[in-house]
């Protein structure tokens, strides 16, 4: 919501999945671009249609496979303007991708992120992926991962100490880095009662593109 309130002209939801923020928020002049695998996107659009929910005028869709499609071109095809600031939200997606796809996508985001743009990026904690985590929610996640008929395989994770340099290498400056404690504090301040607490397996970064870019 801050992006809308701050009048960021564009929001790109990368791997939007069944996120309905673009339908629920009164985003006015802010344009929203949803990208996801064709199959997921098609199913979502059918479900929305079935429920009688119209696509707002400021929302555009395109399919992408982050493991092979060029993100910048995909965005531009549906009208995204790389010369205007934007909020890129890449939430809940990186664990599913091989590291090369994350590298190439981050490069592509950086090449299309005008100064003042922001990126929300979350990542799985390596301790969870490698079975060492003991915190709240980690054990349940590890159990699900190790189940032989689990439909999900995770490929990518970061150590929290490595996350900020990882993002900053691509020309972003990290503004906030939320781990379990910080996320629980945000929820407490917002008086959100989601059962109890957030689990430890995803951390979130908020980064921005400074006025002078320093990509490698
Ligand atoms: C756990 S969902 C997260 C959805 C949404 N961002 C959210 O936070 O609610 C993961 C999403 O990543 C998408 N995804 C997984 N692999 C992908 C790929 N190779 N290319 C594009 N999207 C992918 C899935 O289709 C799915 O929508």
Number of domains: 1
Q: Briefly, what CATH class?
A: Alpha Beta
- Tell me the strand order in the biggest sheet: 3-2-1-4-5-7-6
Bound molecules: S-adenosylmethionine
Cα distance spanning the termini:
31 Å
Average pLDDT, all residues: 87
Number of strands: 7
- State which percent range the strand residues make up: 15-25%
Principal-axes shape call: globular
Going by CATH, the homologous superfamily would be: Vaccinia Virus protein VP39
CATH 2nd-level architecture: 3-Layer(aba) Sandwich
Q: Which structural category do the helix and sheet elements fall into?
A: alpha/beta
The number of helices is 9
* Main sheet makeup: 7 strands, mixed
Topology as a string of helices (H) and strands (E): HEHEHEHEHEHHHEHE
**Low-pLDDT segments:** none
- Give the helix proportion (percent range): 25-40%
In CATH, the topology is named Rossmann fold
Task: Explain how this protein is built.
By secondary structure, the chain is α/β, with parallel strands linked by helices. It is built from nine helices and seven strands. A seven-stranded mixed beta sheet has the order 3-2-1-4-5-7-6. It starts with a helix and ends in an 8-residue tail after the last strand. The protein binds S-adenosylmethionine. Residues 15-17, 19, 36-37, 40, 64-67, 91-93, 96-97 line the site of S-adenosylmethionine (SAM).
């Amino acid at each position: 919501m801050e992006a809308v309130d701050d009048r960021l002209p564009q929001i790109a939801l990368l791997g939007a999945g069944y996120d309905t923020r673009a339908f629920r928020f009164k985003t006015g002049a802010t344009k929203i671009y949803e990208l996801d695998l064709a199959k997921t996107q098609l199913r979502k659009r059918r479900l929305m249609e079935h429920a009688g929910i119209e696509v707002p005028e400021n929302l555009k869709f395109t399919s992408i496979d982050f493991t092979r499609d060029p993100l910048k071109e995909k965005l531009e095809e549906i009208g995204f303007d790389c010369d205007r600031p934007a909020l890129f939200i890449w939430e809940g997606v990186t664990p599913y991708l091989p590291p090369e796809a994350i590298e190439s996508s981050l490069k592509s985001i950086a090449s299309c992120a005008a100064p003042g743009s922001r990126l929300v990026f979350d990542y799985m904690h390596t301790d969870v992926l490698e079975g060492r985590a003991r915190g709240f929610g980690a054990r349940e996640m590890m159990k699900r991962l190790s189940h032989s008929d689990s439909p999900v395989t995770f490929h990518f994770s970061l150590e929290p100490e490595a996350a900020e340099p990882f993002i900053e290498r691509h020309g972003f400056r990290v503004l906030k880095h939320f781990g379990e404690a910080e996320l629980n504090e945000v929820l407490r301040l917002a008086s959100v009662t989601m059962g109890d607490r957030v689990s430890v397996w995803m951390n979130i970064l908020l980064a921005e593109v400074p006025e002078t870019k320093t990509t490698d």
